[in-house]
Amino acid sequence: MRRFRILFGLYLFVAAVALGAAVWLSSGPEYVYRPSDDKVLNPERGGSVRAASEGDESGDPALGKTSFYGSTFGNEVFFTDIMGLFDGPFTLPNVIQAVVGLRGQGTDNLKVKAAKTATIAGQTIHEGDLIETGLDVPKGAAAPLGVRIKYADGRLKAGISCLVCHATVDDRTGKVALGVPNRDLNVGYLLAMATNTSAYFTHTQISTLQTYMRDLTRTVKGSDGQDKVLPDPELLEDAVDRDIIRWPRGSNDTTLDSTNNPVQIPDSITLGDHPYGWSGQGVAGPFKGLSAAINNAHAQNMDAMTQSELAWPVKDVDKELYIGTLLQRAATPKYRYDPASGRKPSDFFASVDPTPGMPGVNQVIPAPSYPRSSYMSAVGLFNSEPGFTAWQQVNSMSAWMNTLVPPKPRVEADARTVAMGEGVFRKAQCVSCHAGAFFTNNKIIPVKEIGTEPARAAGFRVAEKFFDPVPRMYAPNVPVPLPDSPEVRTIELTEEQRAALQLAWAQKGSEGGYKVPSLFGLSWSPPYLHDGGVAVGPDRERDLGIPGTWNKGVGPDAYNSLQALLDRRQRARVMEANKPLAPAHVTGEGHAFWVDEEAGFTPEEQDALIRYLLTIPGR
């Protein structure tokens, strides 16, 4: 048996080397999997570009599809060289080995052997332990879905495209379900295993760096000429790890409010589902605000360095201190800042910046509002690769995402049950919000009215400190790199849009709100609510909340989770189970619109409503 294990391990090593060679020879020094149409579960919507883009013809769905599948906008530098995502127990060679070990078969949860023993946030991962990543690998793919692997600067690097979060492998057919959230992607756990997770500190509960300042001799020269003390690298790293490791699977923190408030990865089946983002912050600009929401995901969340100009006016952190904090534990020596050098962190970064003149390492251009935030970009930056026009790629992704239709529901219901469920849907007044062809009235509901966990609703409030209230963007023909005087156009807002934006961005004293989402694809997207807290597994009595589902390796069941959404007694049990996750603002509270016996509905009516909801659309 021991000899077999040795031989099999040698086989995997040789196979991994062969895979690397094949990748290099077939596609140059990088590889990303792009599923062919016959490998995709759900078709794209037919019709013209105009129909697909809700009246905006500035996007090319074909380019959008290509960008959605493989564009990283350069984030492999942040994740690999700065954050060190692959320098801890989770490594790229072991990812490749795990993919090879599938022998061509797909998986919706790639299990990767830990490359080394490490203790992270008080939890010890031993060498050889299996790390449940939630990464999806289609049949025949040489890398996980949405992971772009490249060889540069003498090492393997990896970045991520939209596909890593907004698609999944169907465990029944092995095909790729596009636009469906990767609901078990273990984002927090994987980030916590990075060697410089502290580069993501703005996405946690850390409101001041002073708490972590120990060695008063480790200083940088601040923007005001005064010495600023760097936080202790190990103390800050541990604090960030302890916050991020709490994120439930399929969740990510997407705001800069110094609050640990992850939200579920949303679907990308977007036609008719505006405004965009959980709080509805995507209202202004092309595609009813969808392009702005997409841009925010890449410009802000895939490279914390892009926030350096906002550090002082928004976070009360000096720019030099901010850059020094992010780079003092950088994984690659080239990007690692040493305070003993005496150099300003910004000068050091400028000497190694792969995108000279731009904040951060991603491929971005300054928005007309830069360095201020605006309704078009929370960090005042647009994503765009050189050779395209401004926003061409992001608009094209919007156009393509609007062509997606949900996969066929994973449950069935007979005609009688559907008819009864639709009647209950109307009787219970669900239709007052979830109305129309896309089952949404496209409104934002104030957080006090909807009653769900409130932290995320105010997530964009901090941007108001340094904000341009006039949304502007470049003319469609402005090239990248930008010319000296690019043409800028103001985006006119209606009073209704202005009110929606102030609510979505929690401005002018508002507590914020949450959008009314479409009900398409519910069978593919449990658990429910923005925090994903309404989670129940196959066993209704034991698999309760996130601790009873994802934290035990049990996937939330769509039927049982919806039942907890509608039944107040079961919801109370779910909320009780979620109490350990209160520091991450995951509760499953609110949306108290009950369809249970106390509300005058029979168990049969409740069952019919659940089955009706789970088959929208696709009957």
Estimated helix fraction: 25-40%
- Mean pLDDT across all amino acids: 92
Tally of structural domains: 3
Termini Cα gap? 52 Å
* Contiguous uncertain segments of 5+ residues: 1-27, 47-56
Biggest sheet record: 3 strands, antiparallel
SS strand fraction = 5-15%
Q: By helix and strand content, what is the structural category?
A: alpha+beta
Which keywords apply here?
single chain, 619 residues, alpha+beta, Cytochrome Bc1 Complex, Chain D, domain 2, 3-stranded antiparallel sheet, two-stranded antiparallel sheet, globular, disordered N terminus
Describe the structure.
- By secondary structure, the chain is α+β, with helices and mostly antiparallel strands.
- The protein folds into 3 domains: 2-44 and 71-181, no CATH class; 191-364, no CATH class; 415-466 and 495-614, Cytochrome Bc1 Complex, Chain D, domain 2.
- 29% of the residues lie in helices and 10% in strands.
- The chain is built from 19 helices and 19 strands.
- It has helices at residues 2-27, 49-52, 61-70, 76-82, 92-101, 187-192, 233-244, 290-299, 311-315, 319-327, 345-352, 392-401, 415-427, 447-450, 495-504, 545-548, 558-566, 568-577, 603-614, and strands spanning 30-31, 111-113, 118-120, 123-125, 130-132, 147-152, 155-160, 167-169, 176-178, 219-221, 227-229, 251-252, 263-264, 364-366, 381-383, 444-446, 472-474, 488-490, 513-515.
- Strands 1-6-7 form a 3-stranded antiparallel sheet. A two-stranded antiparallel ribbon has the order 2-5.
- The chain is globular and about 75 Å long.
- The N and C termini lie far apart (52 Å).
